Amino acid sequence: MTQTIKIGTRGSKLALWQAEYIKSKIEKQNSIYNATITIIKTKGDIITDVPLAKIGGKGLFVKEIELALLNKQIDIAVHSLKDMPAIMPNGLSIGAIPKRENPQDILVSKNNIKLSELKTGAVIGTSSLRRASQLLFYRPDLKINPLRGNLDTRLKKLNTEALDGIILAAAGVKRLGYQKNIAEYIDPDIILPAAGQGALCVQIREADPIILPIVKKLNSEINRYEVAGERAFLHNLEGDCQIPIASFGKAEGNQYRLTGLVADTAGKQIIKSQIGGELKNAAKLGAKLAEKLISMGADKILQNIKNSIQ
Questions:
Q1: Which CATH architecture best describes the domain 1-98+199-219?
Q2: pLDDT truncated to tens, each residue of the chain (310 aa)?
Q3: Are 179 and 151 in contact (CB under 8 A)?
Q4: 166 neighbors 182 (Cβ within 8 angstroms)
Q5: By the 8 A CB rule, do 183 and 124 touch?
Q6: CA–CA distance, 5 with 285 (Å, rounded to integer)
Q7: What SS3 state is found at 47?
Q8: Where exactly does CATH 3.30.160.40 map onto the chain?
Q9: Were 219 and a residue from 96, 143, 197, 282 both cysteine, which residue would form a disulfide, CB within 3.0 to 4.6 Å?
């Protein structure tokens, strides 16, 4: 007898692709289950005319979905991991981190011009303080224009607004089949990705005896360790996805290397460092790297940013 599993997601084209991907995996691996998709609007979807940092960074694209999961209106939530606060609400847990897509940022530009070749004073669209600060550190001459909206909307605005380029996550562009628009995959030495970028999170109720065994089959153990270090770094800096904190961890066999940074919003100062160790200790390494950056002055930068956006 077929049983139904309800998957909660945002309603954007990319979010629906992600939910459909998880739905197909579940149904393929578990013949007795039929998965349905429930679309849930989040605060970040409703308020589209204000920069994300101004409307409160934590949980803008996940809170309402998490509430539906806690209230048992859905059985599984599918999120972009980079949208999730570093701390999970009581009663919820990460059931699986599926195989990660490319975590880099990419440039989409008019005439496919590379980042280093953009004209002096070129206008770049992004609402990410993380991306903007690193861009300005690399090219102080660039001008940043806020850019909100789903992926399709942002791609259209490249041609409808006075923009020379926009910065996006490679993962979303690839998942929706827009690779032909990519002018350049941006080197992480220029723009370090957000914690968890490129990874999906399958969120469940904690220790759910029915759902946990189902979603565990979707998990990539290596990717889960990699993002655990990135998120531990974010958590120990008390950061969220809307302030200029970046981290990127990479497994090399049973070893792990994590790079993290904190930047000021003007792009004048970046504090950046690396740490390495055993992959199984990824979360501890993330915490240690955060402590290292704090000792280098990262906490002062972050406090100034929080004061400025309150």
A1: 3-Layer(aba) Sandwich (3.40)
A2: 679 999 999 999 999 999 999 999 999 999 899 999 999 998 877 666 555 656 555 677 899 999 999 999 999 999 999 999 888 999 999 999 999 999 999 999 999 999 999 999 999 999 899 999 999 999 999 999 999 888 999 999 999 999 999 999 999 999 999 999 999 999 999 999 999 999 999 999 999 999 999 999 999 999 999 999 999 999 999 876 568 999 999 999 999 999 999 999 999 999 999 999 999 999 999 999 999 999 999 999 998 887 776 5
A3: no
A4: no
A5: no
A6: 36
A7: coil
A8: 221-310
A9: 96
CA distance 16 to 257: 32
Cα–Cα distances in Å, from 15 out to 31, 80, 142? 24, 8, 31
The catalytic residue positions are 83
Instruction: State the DSSP code for 97.
Output: -
Q: What is the CATH topology of the domain spanning 221-310?
A: Double Stranded RNA Binding Domain (3.30.160)
Separation CA 98–CA 175 (nearest Å): 14
| CATH of the domain spanning 105-185, picked from 3.40.190.10, 1.10.10.60, 3.40.50.300, 1.10.8.60 | 3.40.190.10
Chain centroid to Cα 85, Å, comes to: 10
Residue spans in the chain of domains classed CATH 3.40.190.10: 1-98+199-219, 105-185
Q: In the numeric block, which tokens belong to residue 61?
A: 């694209």
In angstroms, the CA 193 to CA 207 distance is 31
Q: How many CA atoms lie within 13 A of 38 on its CB side?
A: 18
Residue 262 and residue 245 in contact, taking contact as beta carbons nearer than 8 Å: yes
Give the three-state DSSP class for 250.
strand
Bridging pattern class, strands 200-205 and 76-80: antiparallel
CB 18: neighbour CB atoms within 10 A?
A: 24
Outline where 96-216 has alpha helix (H): 129-138, 151-160, 170-175, 211-215
